[in-house]
Design brief:
Elements (H helix, E strand, L loop, with lengths): L3 E7 L5 E13 L2 E6 L3 E2 L5 E2 L3 E5 L5 E5 L6 E8 L3 E3 L2 E14 L5 E4 L1 H10 L4 H20 L7 H11 L14
Parallel strand pairs: 1-10
Antiparallel strand pairs: 1-2, 2-3, 3-6, 4-5, 6-7, 7-8, 8-10, 9-10, 10-11
Length: 178
């Protein structure tokens, strides 16, 4: 198993949104691939029974979550600020727009536009940020629909690794010995 990574996602104003431990699976031309193992407990106390893989591309305004069956969303992309890596943590701000591809139908959906508009006003998103968010959403709509990589098959090798792992306690200190 790879190095542990802490995923910390805030809203644009800095308030916590989601946080959870992950495992660095590796890197390629698409970015860094993180595995979230079955049994992972997020900051909200939710225990995730199914694994997933998170792609964090370099200098991009999005992340992509790849889910195994039977999850209805095969791929779920969050529009975010570009990732900031600090030691073993990745920091992102969720900008509310999301693009997903449904597993059964292959339909690509842009979701949460109302939440984006609400937060754009509440948090006074700068014009450049709004442009970047919409550009990322349009890119993802096309890429998920036309089978561009890494959304066609590249992600499967990473997801297969995580699906094969047994549940573990990522909160435990590996140096503690019972």
């Amino acid at each position: 198993m790879g190095d542990r990574v802490r995923v910390e996602i805030t809203k644009f104003d800095g308030t916590p949104h989601r946080g959870y431990p992950a495992v660095l699976l590796g890197s390629d031309d698409y970015g860094r691939w993180l595995g979230v193992l079955p049994g992972t407990v997020s900051d909200s106390g939710i225990r995730h029974e199914r694994p997933w893989v998170l792609l964090v591309p370099e200098d991009a305004w999005w992340t992509a979550m790849f889910n195994p069956p039977p999850q209805g969303s095969e791929i779920y992309c969050d529009i975010t600020t570009p990732a900031e890596w600090i030691a073993d943590r990745v920091l992102l701000a969720d900008l509310d727009l999301d693009v997903k591809r449904r597993r059964e139908s292959g339909a690509v959906l842009l979701v949460d536009t109302d939440e984006f508009d609400e937060h754009r006003q509440r948090f006074a998103y700068p014009a450049g940020l709004v442009e970047q968010a919409w550009a990322a959403a349009r890119y993802l709509e096309r890429a998920l629909a036309d089978g561009s990589e890494p959304f066609a098959s590249v992600y499967r090798q990473w997801l297969d690794k995580v699906v094969a792992w047994a549940p573990v306690d990522l909160a435990a200190d590996p140096h503690d010995q019972a």
